[in-house]
Amino acid sequence: MKLYFAGGEVGSHRRLLEDNGHRTIAMSYVGLSRRNKFTKPWIADGQFAPSTEILLDSGAFSLNKDDARVTEQQAIALSINYRVFIQNNPDRFSGITEFDALILGDDWLKGSREDFYDGLPDGTFIPVWHSMSGLDELHRLAGAYGRVGVVQDDLDDEDHEAALGQLAADGVKLHGMGMTSMRSMRQVAWDSVSSTSWLSPIQYGDLIIWDGVSRLHRYPRKRRDHGLKTFSDRLAAEGFDIAAITAGESAELLRLSAWSWSRYVGWINDWRAEHPQGLVTGSGRPGEPHTLPSALARPEPRERTLLPILSVTSSGTGDDKDGQAEPLTDAASTTLMRCDSCYIRRECPEFTEGAVCKFSIPVYVESANQLRSLLNTVIRIQAQRAFTMTMMEQAKGGYADAGTGTEIDRLARLIRLRSDAEKSSFTLSVTASGPAAQQAGYLSSVFGREAGDRATALAEPVPTAEILGDIVEAEVVE
DSSP per residue over 185-251, as a string? Predict the structure, then answer.
């Protein structure tokens, strides 16, 4: 799969890509037309390095959005100008997508293919399939041209993915347009894709980092410092300017993003080379080969089994309503993890190719003592994490790492949880109501009048003077 970095119509983008060795670039004609009045012919040879491979995207995708405000006449004008642009740059583009503005209608699109696009050099033209046209049209385009463009938004169900997978297996070259989903890149054996996702750091302020194994990490703006601290040593070893990334300098953020996307696509290609008949799933393990689904096929019944991450035990106490032992759900100590796809396979001391994970994680929480032991274990682990991150923070010059504060806060919450669990108290609340005329009060209302009288009775007579205190004699004044 070849990745075309979209956005080449912007001069600073294409220069940054070329300066960093990325020589497969896509450009949008509609995007360029919004930045250029074309007072003179725009010649790609004067804008790109000779060794750069350019894919020309019509950019009509933006005209197909629900909020697009374009008339049919405006779309026709853009379509005609697009043809002129192509003619001004003969033999310069490795791929040219059709001007697939849906407002023009099927007849216009078919006529344009016959009148113009079919005359382009062999293998250059990329007709665009939309899901609303149906799978029959997809197969017709694939048979006629051997190369088909598919917009990511049209990958809306498993039938489409399966049909595309079968076409790819049959040798049809599929080009993914506007690809932003990592899953979509993995699920179909694309010949090429074009994507603007590498530009998200200057659009949304996020951070995109290749982990060096099999994942592309995206950290939003608020978590950017955390992601940078996690991978700072590795990025520094790759030659990236950590200070510039920390400061949010767009050029360095984009350089890192393009490098990360390139490595991610390289990993997909390496995986496919080893598993040509399989998919690349989210875990990196091979899936089943693509097959076209049959609407009439009925699935064969299968014996059900318990999820391997769960186990069922018996209470052994005969405490259910029928006096029988109750089944209890528990977490299994085994795991689905495999050495070949494990995240830490390069560092694990027990790595064995083709083996299941050697380690088990038994957990017992049946008694108060076992619960206390579990809490103490988790607190010790969290304390080690917090102290290790504090040491790393100091070793790197004392820069305040938000991640360190987060781990310390988690430790404090766990300690409070254990403290609350160890507290023992007993509270009895009694609420009573009754006629207000009852003179014995609440105790009489609950336990009877005699109980109220005994509660209010004095142990021995008390002189009146001690109760009333000093009284000053006075006359009553009317």
Answer: HHHS--SEEEE-GGGHHHHH--EEEE-SSS-EEEE-GGGHHHHHHHHHHHHHHTT--HHHHHTT-HH
CA distance 155 to 9: 26
pTM given for the model: 0.63
pLDDT digits (tens, 9 = 90+) for 115-165: 999 999 999 999 999 999 999 999 999 999 999 999 988 886 778 888 998
Q: Which residue has the higher pLDDT, 130 or 404?
A: 130
CB 379 within 8 A of CB 415: yes
CATH topology of domain 2-207+249-274: TIM Barrel (3.20.20)
C-beta neighbour count of 454 within 10 angstroms: 12
What Rg, from alpha-carbon coordinates, does the chain have?
36
pLDDT tens by residue, 418-476: 888 777 555 656 665 555 444 456 556 655 666 556 655 655 565 555 544 454 444 54
Q: Which residues contact 245 (CB under 8 A, 6 or more apart)?
A: 207, 228, 235, 252, 253, 256
39-44-48-49 Cα dihedral, nearest 10 degrees: -130
Q: Tokens 């009694």 sit at which residue?
A: 430
Q: Retrieve residue 181's tokens.
A: 């989903």
Answer left, alpha or beta for residue 146, where phi above 0 means left and psi between -120 and 50 means alpha: left
Distance from C-alpha of 81 to C-alpha of 74, rounded to nearest angstrom: 11
Q: Compute the half-sphere exposure of residue 205: CA atoms within 13 Å on the CB side of its CA.
A: 9
- The more confidently predicted of residues 157 and 46 is 46
Question: One-letter amino acid identity for 271?
Answer: W
The domain spans of the chain are 2-207+249-274, 306-363, 374-422
